[in-house]
Amino acid sequence: MADDPYAVLGVEKTASDAEISKAYRKLAKELHPDLKPGDKDAEERFKEVSAAYNLLKDSEQRARYDHGEIDASGMERPEREFYHRYADADGTGRYTSGAGFEDFEDVSDLFADLFRAREGRAGYGMGEGFQARGPDTRYHLEVEFLDAANGAKRRITMPDGKALDLSIPAGTRDGGTLRLKGKGMPGIGGGPAGDALVEISVKPHPLFKREGDDIVVELPVTLDEAVLGSKLEVPTIGGRVKMTLPKGSSSGKIMRLKGRGVKAKGRSPGDQRVIIKIVLPETIDSELESFLDDWRKSHHYDPRNELMGAA
Predict the structure, then answer these.
(1) 286 lies in which domain range?
(2) Does 241 reside within a domain?
(3) Measured between alpha carbons, how far is 10 from 24 in angstroms, rounded to an integer?
(4) N or C: which end of the chain has fewer CB within 10 A?
(5) DSSP notation for 125-172
(6) Same domain flag for 187 and 227
(7) Do the domain assignments include residue 223?
(8) C-alpha angle 171/174/178, rounded to 5°?
(9) pLDDT per residue over 119-176, tens digit each?
(10) Which strand (E) or helix (H) includes residue 29?
(11) DSSP 97
(12) Please, are residues 243 and 257 in contact by the beta-carbon 8 Å criterion?
């Protein structure tokens, strides 16, 4: 991408992160290949817009672009390729280019490694034969609650227009990041490509909540089911199951369905916690009202005794 990313997104250089995100979402909705199949011009524009957004949404990359340290494609400018911000480094001289050398504790380690890689070659210079890993790219993906909990496959469109099948592991958490090896920016001088880092946002579910690897659900029951006990059908993230509700169950009682929570690789399966909620009928008929009136006269009890005694 050779164009100014601010111009590509139609924003000023002083635009806030929120303004940049808003401009990107607007353009992405207009240009996404899934919405304009076969439109090559829209596809090319979508690539440009996505690349511009991926550069500017990263505060570090944006600052580096604004200072002229990288170009609009996110690549190091030649004159800064080796000494990016070296003058500002701490006493250890740590190399912080973002071009894939973060594991070198000293810039001398980097040069020593480069020289070793080129030993035996005649007439090598500082630029000759230089290879570097490409920068990582960052993306954001919103997934359904059940897809994150149970695992799923999703097809996403990369900025270059290529479709990529993404495996979402079971137990993926909101805010987690998936790393796609070699799917980032191309390397320098034949070096390996960077990685694509996909940040996951999990949509809330109308019924289920997640606490660690446990799933929590509130289950409405009738007055007679709570008093007399019953076998009930309960929704879980893996489908419906049968559960026995004991006699005399009060609202707030928690039933545990062992192993019915999130089953993430490398961890013990979570449970599903079912919170009982007694729900009365919308209209109390005269028969029920008369029965409870008579029952209260001879079976009075106060569930708030303990509460009031502690106040």
Answers:
(1) 209-310
(2) yes
(3) 9
(4) C
(5) -SSTT--BPPPPEEEEEEE-HHHHHH-EEEEEE-TTS-EEEEEE-TTP
(6) no
(7) yes
(8) 70
(9) 444 444 444 566 788 888 888 889 999 999 999 998 877 766 778 788 999 999 999 9
(10) helix 17-31
(11) -
(12) yes
